[in-house]
Amino acid sequence: MSGKKLFMLIALAFAALVSVNASVISLQIIQHDSTQDEVRGTSYAIENAMFDFLFDKGFIVTNSPTAASFDEREDSVICNRGLADAKIGMCDVFIVLTADYKDSASQNPQGIFLSIINQVHWEMFDVSTGGSLAKGKSEVVGEVPFKKDNEHGVSQFVRDMAEDILVSLRR
After folding, report:
1. CA atoms within 13 A on the CB side of 151
2. In order along the chain (171 residues), what is the average pLDDT of each group of 10 residues?
3. How far apart (Å, rounded) are the C-alpha atoms in residues 141 and 29?
């Protein structure tokens, strides 16, 4: 066997081994916003940033549709549906992020603004048992500078929160 073929065989074996051992994570974003029943661009930006972060860390990531909710009962229905989808999809971990928006939030649902986020709660579940593995929250504190009140600012906020989630995933 030539050196080139041997290298390709080793590379394919390594790729197969890595993909077999990668954890599969399902994400669900729930939006709490008394001013909008439409899913905000900011909620989609939260989802994209978390998805990208986890993928870049080597996880296989899928998601349930981002949803707007107005009460805890609806949150529970959305979360349980997402957990069931994760189980059907053979995921290992289900993470639900609940984004709470300020009552004075922008009336532009397509806009992406860090300043309209009050806080984001997250909870991680073991898909096989449905049991909670970890939870936490991140808050937007103080005034958001104009140059950070955009998609980049939302992404940085999510990356900071994602680092906490990553610590819990690695336990």
Report:
1. 9
2. 50 46 90 90 97 96 94 94 96 97 84 95 97 96 93 96 94 81
3. 21
